[in-house]
TrEMBL record:
One of its GO terms (molecular function) is signaling receptor activity. The chain crosses the membrane at residues 62-84. The lineage of its organism: Eukaryota, Metazoa, Spiralia, Lophotrochozoa, Mollusca. This is TIR domain-containing protein. Pfam families: TIR.
């Protein structure tokens, strides 16, 4: 019995190399002695006999093609990850920092090793009050160590990226947000507030806000509205006066001790 394949459309591709080899090695009787016309991947006409004579070379080419495609795909994925990492490098760095330090147990074990007692987030317009009454009360009267960016504390420097805020907050036990009209309309200040609140997630006692001015509630970022805060009156807002017996300062002192 003879198997008739002559005239059938055959393709000589990587997928059909085993068939070509079989047609010349099988004990089954084939017409034309197993040599048939076939179409290569590039569209050219050849014969199975030519392909069989170059079978080893064809297999190597097929394997090489597969590896080239695989390598190109792998490189493309790797390059994509690099581009994504570069585009969102600050987010990724902050995420790693957050995962490593936001755990309450971790923070409790490291609390004594932290360099600062409190990170103070404020705007330039509130500089005099922060460096006046607030610093005087907390540092000189209560011996707390404040991280104030304008005097070069921590990692925050003019022109540096936002990751510096994360690194600086990570050195502090608490954060105080000095909220004013300028603060709620300042993108950088809002970012500080968001980072601080996210960093101390689950530890709300470590986040405190000081409402230095009356602001429209709808203008205050949602993350700031969710935390406890102190309201400063006209007397407290004075930059040249400090009465530590005022209930405002007593409440702030209590918050720092909690």
């Amino acid at each position: 019995m003879t198997v008739l394949l002559e005239g059938n459309p055959l393709v000589c591709s990587c997928a059909s190399l085993d068939f070509v080899e079989w047609s010349f090695t099988t004990k089954v009787k084939l017409d034309s002695n197993g040599s048939y016309s076939c179409v290569k991947n590039d569209g050219n006409i050849t014969t199975t006999n030519v392909v069989y004579n170059h079978l080893r070379i064809m297999r190597i080419r097929c394997i090489t093609t597969v590896w080239v495609i695989f390598s190109a795909t792998l490189f493309g994925v790797f390059l994509l990850f690099i581009l994504i990492g570069y585009r969102y490098k600050l987010h990724l760095q902050y995420f790693c920092l957050f995962i490593g330090t936001a755990n309450p147990l971790f923070q409790m074990s490291k609390e004594e090793e932290l360099e600062y007692d409190v990170y103070v987030a404020y705007c330039e317009g509130d500089y005099k009050w922060v460096y006046g009454p607030l610093r005087l009360f907390l540092e000189e009267r209560r011996n707390y160590k404040l991280l104030l960016s304008d005097r070069g504390d921590g990692d925050v420097r003019p022109g540096q990226n936002r990751l510096a805020i994360c690194n600086s907050i990570a050195k502090c036990k608490k954060i105080i947000l000095v909220i004013s009209n300028e603060f709620v309309n300042n993108e950088w200040a809002n970012y500080e507030a968001t980072i601080g609140i996210e960093y101390f997630v689950g530890l709300q006692a470590n986040i405190y806000g000081i409402n230095l001015e009356r602001t429209i509630k709808t203008e205050i970022p949602q993350c700031v509205l969710q935390m406890m805060s102190l309201d400063a009156n006209d007397h407290i807002r004075k930059t040249d006066t400090l009465n530590e017996n005022n209930i405002f300062w007593k409440c702030l002192d209590k918050a720092m001790k909690s």
